[in-house]
Design goal:
Elements lengths: L2 H7 L19 H11 L2 H8 L3 H20 L4 H12 L9 H7 L4 H15 L13
Helix pairs in contact: 5-7, 6-7
């Protein structure tokens, strides 16, 4: 983090500024953004936090590429899409359960769940709660 940015975000040690006026510590994200904008340090803040457009663009392209390879490399793309939907949590907006997805593809609930877990590992997705094979 640039020194000027650190200085702009640091409250005075005693809570008072140089003009003997009370200067409370920055409390919220909005306060930090306002301070950085006023000091001309908004771009430095974005760079320090890794929020530059180029970095985000690279991450987005990498994620899309990984998904395309995952789906294109699958023998059964319909199954791969359903596994991806369930693995990412998008299935929460559908009425189909884990067992429903499994039945759609002629699998047991446990077999579908294992495919979901494998895809989550391959794509680096966080684990999420899902039905167990012994659930009613």
């Amino acid at each position: 983090m640039p020194a000027a940015l650190k200085d702009a975000l640091q409250p005075p040690a005693n809570g008072w500024n140089n003009q003997s006026a009370w200067n409370p510590a920055v409390d919220t994200v909005a306060d930090i953004l306002r301070e950085c904008k006023a000091s001309g340090l908004l771009e430095d803040l974005r760079a320090a936090l890794g929020c530059t457009g180029e970095d985000q663009h690279v991450v987005t392209l990498r994620a899309i590429r990984d998904l395309v390879y995952e789906l294109a490399g699958s023998e059964n793309r319909d199954l791969a899409v359903d596994v991806l939907i369930y693995a990412t949590g998008v299935a929460e907006f559908d009425v189909t359960s884990l067992r429903g997805y499994a039945a759609r593809h002629g699998l047991t609930a446990e077999g579908f769940r294992k495919q979901v877990l494998a895809m989550q590992r391959r794509l680096g997705l966080p684990p999420r709660p899902m039905q167990q094979s012994d659930a009613n």
